[in-house]
Amino acid sequence: MIKAELKNNWIICIGFPKWEGNYAKSSVMLMKQLALNYRVVYVDYQHTLKDLIFGLFFRNTNIPVKRLMGLEDRLTCKDNVYILTPPPVLPINWIRNKTIYHALLKVNNRIVRSAIRKAIKKLDIHNPAVVNAFNPFFGIYNRGKLNESCHIYYCYDEIGHAKWMNRHGERLEAKFAQKVDAVIATSKPLLQKLSARNKHVYLIENGVDFDLFNRYASPKETPSIQIVGYTGSIDERLDFEYIEKLASLLPDVRFKFVGRITGDGLVKNLEKLNNVEFEPPVDYNRLPAILSEFDLCLIPFVKNEFTRNIYPMKINEYLAAGKLTLMTNFAALPEFDDIVFKEDSPEQAATRIRNINLLDPNIRGRIDRGIALAKSNSWASRSAGFIRIIEKHSNHQTTA
To answer: What is the pTM of this model?
Structure first.
């Protein structure tokens, strides 16, 4: 059990994604949970000068123009977490020349570091634990410069295959991972890769807000699968040919996708099918109610070097909500083998869905095992492991 005096300790998380948004992020979910035991500052997405100009001229409400310009307090508080909006940085990701890139990256690191130091002074923070969440760009030149008790790299994706950061990300991550006190990976392939770069590497897989998602879990009263659903980003991770074929083979089944569509033309063929529908992303707290409409949930990811490193958050969310789940065999996830159906062929998946009887005791047993597994994979459980790692590597350890 974590003692109350941990409330006097601080975590500064240098994040990559925005705190706000219409999709769940593991770093945000973890920091919310850790805020129950620590005082947390989350360094929000590092907007560029280009973003600021865009926000000024196009009135984009997703860009916090006033905070970026210092016209509003850069520190706000939400979910018991301080959110820090740093000043805009230089847009340099397009630069190929490594010498020029690193010279400007040092400038960007100083900009963000200055904002963090001002927050440290304002909040009277001493010896914080610094967690860099998949953001070696703002870790490589900031490690050891925040009077931190420990510096931990939290890696939740394969950076070398992430299109938005692969130009410089792989090289920076390799150097950064060697310098930090510890590395936390969210999947076994990432653990294996990063173990070659640091001797203190730990596995903490993604979790679930169990109480939130289990709220609407209840047995279905009809035997057949009528609605197949997917929630989350509709992006290049999805196998659209697989989905199209599956939906074509099951014309009497509705396929419902809820989430942001991240690329033009991705769903043009699916939109032609009468039994496929798309809905915009919803607030995270509304997801359980959406899931309650589904008879079966789908994780139809392509199998490649990027997805093989994924431990998807949605798998525990689906199971916590009491949903049967069918997925492609994109990654090795053995703990789910006797709970989740895996079908790489859309024909086999269609046959599987046709033959499912939701009233079958074996199916009910599978659902119950999924709920129990998701409960053990809660964010509360994951954060307890995170705290143990912080304590182990902090130079002012606190007894738990």
So the answer is: 0.91
